[in-house]
Design a protein that fits this description.
Homodimer. Probably interacts with PlsY. Catalyzes the reversible formation of acyl-phosphate (acyl-PO(4)) from acyl-[acyl-carrier-protein] (acyl-ACP). This enzyme utilizes acyl-ACP as fatty acyl donor, but not acyl-CoA. Keywords: Acyltransferase, Cytoplasm, Lipid biosynthesis, Lipid metabolism, Phospholipid biosynthesis, Phospholipid metabolism, Transferase. It is a single chain. By secondary structure, the protein is α/β, with parallel strands linked by helices. It has a domain at 1-119 and 287-318: Isopropylmalate Dehydrogenase (3-Layer(aba) Sandwich), CATH 3.40.718. It contains 13 helices and twelve strands. The chain has helices at residues 15-27, 39-45, 69-75, 80-89, 102-113, 149-165, 188-198, 210-215, 226-251, 255-263, 265-274, 301-316, 319-330, and strands spanning 2-6, 32-37, 54-58, 95-98, 123-124, 127-128, 136-139, 174-177, 204-208, 221-223, 283-286, 291-294. The chain has a seven-stranded mixed sheet with strand order 3-2-1-4-12-11-5, with helices on both faces.
Length: 331
């Protein structure tokens, strides 16, 4: 198995991806890692020698966060992100991982790697932390802003296969994000999607409100369009950051609270880890004809390592073949 890693994407590149790759290379000796980016910067970030199963592919071209995605992919074919996608497209790598420009990753997936048969629009599928600790697979989280009912049903089928084979959920419960649980709620697209999912072979549990989704006890997969999903994703991240910041401020506000904080430090660390997005790895672009994992732009080495582990499991469990088979069964 070979993984192509965009070493120049993300807020902490190349240090975070390089550190994570070196750690992953030790953990997964049967996997070859290709770090793509500025060789001098990558070597400067290495703490010691590179493991034997890590190689470098040099380029000093980078797609920046404010670049227009499609134009950047076309005008910067030698960028670290596009070169990673080309490796997947050419069969030189099984999966690519990047924490770079989300739109550019999506464009590279569509223009360079291509789509699976019967998939019109790929979807970004992150796992959101939930109050019960299980997590919920949300899609789409930003790839397609105006999705049709057919797109949403396709997402549900792909997410079911991904949840089975990567998240180890035997019979994933699929919910449709809506403003109410009643069958008649929602706009025209959501109502049509509800009807189609009701007739599908999926384990469809009906409409799900956002508060139920975060509880985690109602559905394992929640489907929505990319506009709504991206708002939900960023709201959840913002609430999490604000909550932990507030707890920290409270526990350091006086001598008494500092003592109390010290007594429950272990419990608080476990509580924090349960809702830490870094522990959930990256988000796959489901529907692309190759492994494509998007790590969070602010990923540290731990988050990068989890994203690499996720990409490895994606390939090891032959998820692409299972996604294609699920799409064929829908016909």
């Amino acid at each position: 198995m070979t993984m192509a890693v965009d070493a120049m994407g993300g807020d902490y590149a190349p240090n975070a991806p390089v550190e994570a790759v070196c750690q992953a290379a030790t953990s997964f000796s049967d996997t070859r890692f290709v770090l793509i980016g500025d060789e001098s910067q990558i070597l400067a970030a290495v703490k010691g020698n590179l493991p034997n199963n890590v190689t470098l592919k040099h380029t000093d071209v980078v797609i920046e966060g404010d670049d227009e995605p499609v134009r950047a992919v076309r005008r910067k074919p030698e960028s670290s992100l596009v070169l990673a996608a080309k490796m997947v497209a050419d069969g030189e790598a099984d999966v690519m991982v990047s924490a770079g420009n989300t739109g550019a990753i999506m464009a590279a997936g569509m223009l360079v790697i291509g789509r699976l048969p019967s998939v019109d629009r790929p979807a970004l599928a992150p796992v959101l932390p939930t109050f019960d600790g299980r997590g919920v697979l949300l899609l789409d989280a930003g790839a397609t802003m105006d999705a049709s009912a057919e797109n949403l049903v396709t997402y549900a089928y792909m997410a079911t296969e991904y949840a089975k084979h990567v998240l180890d959920i035997e019979n994933p419960r699929v919910g449709l994000l809506n403003v109410g649980t009643e069958d008649t709620k929602g706009n025209a697209v959501v109502k049509q999607t509800f009807s189609l999912l009701t007739q599908s072979r999926l384990n469809f549990v009906g409409n799900v409100e956002a508060r139920e989704m975060m509880a985690g006890s109602v559905a394992d997969v929640v489907v929505c369009d990319g506009f709504v999903g991206n708002v939900v994703l960023k709201l959840a991240e913002g609430i999490g950051l604000g909550l932990f910041s507030g707890i920290k401020d409270t526990l350091t506000s006086s001598l008494m609270t500092r003592i109390a904080g010290g007594l429950i430090r272990g419990k608080l660390r476990g509580f924090r880890d349960r809702y830490d997005w870094a522990e959930h790895g990256g988000a796959p672009f489901l529907g692309v004809a190759g492994g494509l994992i998007k790590a969070h732009g602010s990923s540290n080495a731990r988050a990068w390592y989890m994203a690499l582990s996720q990409g490895r499991k994606f390939i090891a469990n032959d998820v692409l073949t299972k996604l294609s088979a699920a799409m064929e069964e829908r016909k």
